[in-house]
Amino acid sequence: MRTRSAVALTLAALLTCAAAARAGAREDALAILDQAVKAHGGEAALAKLKNSVRTGEGTFALAGNTVPFKSQWTVSLPERSRLDFELQGQPRRTTLVDGARVGLFDGVRWFDASKETTDEAREELYVVLLTTLLPLKGDGFELEPAGEVQVNGRPALTVRATGKGHRDVVLYFDKETHLLVKAKRRAAEGGLPVDKEYFYGQHREFDGVRLPAHYAEHVNGKKLMETSVEWKLPSKLDDSVFERK
Description:
By secondary structure, this protein is an alpha+beta fold. Helix content is 24%, strand content 49%. The chain has three helices and 13 strands. The chain has a 13-stranded antiparallel β-sheet with strand order 6-5-4-3-2-1-13-12-11-10-9-8-7, with helices on one face. The protein is globular, with a radius of gyration of 20 Å.
């Protein structure tokens, strides 16, 4: 009886210590996020990111070449987005996320995406949600610092965010400016796991919010695309934007 009681007390002590460590890690992560929120314009400004329209022009890596493209990404958080993407010399292609449904337009017709494509499109939108920062301050995420690293030759502080039903995302904040400069997650392409990185740079003010005017994506360390970005933050988006057209 005494042995069992001692074991129970030991387990309870260990669990208490673990809970305290998690609480401390969350507070440290929130301190990093608080600085980032201020750097990007404050909570009232970041709340405008519920609706956003990003237009861009850049280059896409394709078969060993870089091909110019134009894009427009319209987002209504947390569950709707429309990405219109046009490679030079090719028809427009569109990815439409509306809750659990994802539709694709291949330049000729619309069709429902496969499960893998649907999951990845929704994870992409989840990353967008996290990069608005404010949702991370709620109770729906486990947060912890993930160390100090270098991003583009500058020191950055990191926060790992764990949300139910989603893969972990690591966010990187410049140590001096506190601006978001990178995000990273595990993704899937062609049924294989890959590391996906998102780089944010050349921040400037758009409608009172400090946002990146340059954006790039890397897959397994290789640049997939990069683009200049212009932002608009409408107070409302018409439902027709998210129709298959």
